[in-house]
Amino acid sequence: MKKVIRNVSELTISKESLSSMPYANRVMMVSPAFFNVENPINAHMRQSDGSLHKLDKNLAVEQWKNLKATYEKLGFNVFVVDPVDELPDMVFCANQSFPYLDSCGNFNAVLSNMFNDTRNEEVSYINSFLIGQGYQTHRIASRTLGYYFESMGDALWLPGFRFILGGYGFRTDKRIYQFLSETTNSPIAIFELKHPKFYHLDTCLSILDDKTALACKDAFTDDGWQLLNKIFPKIIHVPLHEADSPSFACNAHCPDRKHVIIQKNCKQTNSNLIAAGFIPVEVDTSEFIKSGGSVFCMKLMFF
User: Rg for the chain (alpha carbons), in Å?
Assistant: First the structure.
């Protein structure tokens, strides 16, 4: 079996043949005290007239607190990392590291080589947190050679299994996935992202359980969409207008195979979730969507 899978013909495994890996069950978030829209590094950060979005910082704090409380109400322990002045995007803490368990059950994490220089400065602070939690951390390739990797923005575990779905094209270099596969001892199905508004895989794909995913077809190539349908027996289609800002429906998160934490007013997506047996839990992350991130971006699941 190929370690890096690019199309349906290369997907020659079944779930029964995959090694298992427990669900990550702890949540880390970064306080939004220094959150701001300062540098337009994605297509969502500008208004229709080209100017940067203006934030209501007090509202952003309230929205963040409500998201934290939502995880706690669902039974998760939330660890809060202090923000760093002059790192306004650090609140999007899915992007700096990729936690996993090795074959012996030890805590490990691959550290990001982030595309943006300022964002790359965030990595050392998340690294310190993970080391404090007993993690061994790794860098697996050289950023100076263009091996960019934005961790759980682009690399998503298939829940319960040692199998990764990886996106590339805007922030993550596809060459990184050979290194990631070898480091984690996991096969990886990779997807080229073609739409600039879906610059990370987590903006167009939300994995709900090992059989079900939310996805926006407009973000994928034809080969990628076929591969995604081969992996997931059930794909809940998200229309482009709900996947795009200001709704960001695919940046939802299902932490327990039942509840789906999602930006409010994604009416069609919520209806489809309910029909599929999931429970939408609406939150408001509108101030964070102005910077190109919502629920999934604002937390890190770790073991």
Answer: 18
